[in-house]
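Regression check, adenosine-5'-diphosphate case 328:
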Amino acid sequence: KLYNQVQDLKGSIRVYCRVRPFLPGQPNSASSVDHIEDGTITISIPSKNGRGRKSFNFNKVFGSCSTQGEVFSDTQPLIRSVLDGYNVCIFAYGQTGSGKTYTMTGPNNLTEQSQGVNYRALGDLFLLAEQRKDIVHYDVSVQMIEIYNEQVRDLLVSDEIRSASQGLTVPDASLVRVASTCDVIDLMNLGQKNRSVGATALNDRSSRSHSCLTVHVQGRDVASGAILRGCMHLVDLAGSERVNKSEVTGDRLKESQHINKSLSALGDVISALAQKNAHVPYRNSKLTQLLQDSLGGQAKTLMFVHISPEPEAVGETISTLKFAERVS
Ligand code: ADP
Ligand code: MG
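Current build output:
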């Protein structure tokens, strides 16, 4: 019965845009967001002869006053899908400082109200699994990896083991059984700690690597013993800002070339899927290779694209929105 249910439904790609509010203490200049109406966001673009405007359409646009709860509300059906045996990818895209980590995890001083998608998704997952426990028995386990310069690192093991396992693939990354949201929070904290190893204040790697929390769910139909598997990837992408090639050299240039390459590979894959192209170029980056089974086919994809409200960021904002429009 469960298998039929899985085959009946189709995969999908949804793109949501979120605007970060101005931050406390920031000079409160005019926002580059002219207005938002349903799924359309209009950006004002300064130009020599006054101001221009450009509009972009998405499945939904969340303005700067939207709460974490509102942003998550439409994500709930995806959590149900994971328990039904689907694969799901949720991405946060945007320039550094636009609110990707805020959406996925939350602010540094986390409260229940400000918890991001990761916490809420896991909370729902365990809640739904509990509600279904007489019909399906679920096992949940997680992996946490980082992709930096096209190298995959396991974030759930200590530093020594990690360096020995270069060229790791996600199936090799440690898989940890979890029984509650608390267990996952502990692991996320460990992963965050491992992630910052080697990063100096001047070299904040978190903005230049992709981090991916993968939740694997295995359900056993209590009556028939049939097994179904679903998984959910929660991906906080590296900052999408383009760097000026004349200003950066060496490691920083290499980093930004890797980021560009992997973000455009992701864009190419999602847009090929959205257009139902026969060929989907999964092999062009580590990220798309690792997520291949969860992008396309029956899988469901949700991309949150983030923009900053500052007029100075309008160039990046436009390029973010163009990227997002291409994949939707
Ligand atoms: P990114 O991960 O894209 O680099 P962050 O999520 O770290 O950006 O956000 C940058 C700063 O803005 C952080 O201090 C964060 O707490 C704050 N911030 C981001 N989005 C929001 C929001 N929707 N509401 C309030 N503060 C936000
Ligand atoms: Mg971040």
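Comparison notes: The longest helix spans residues 250-274. Confidence is low (pLDDT under 50) at residues 1-9, 160-167. No diff flagged against the previous build.
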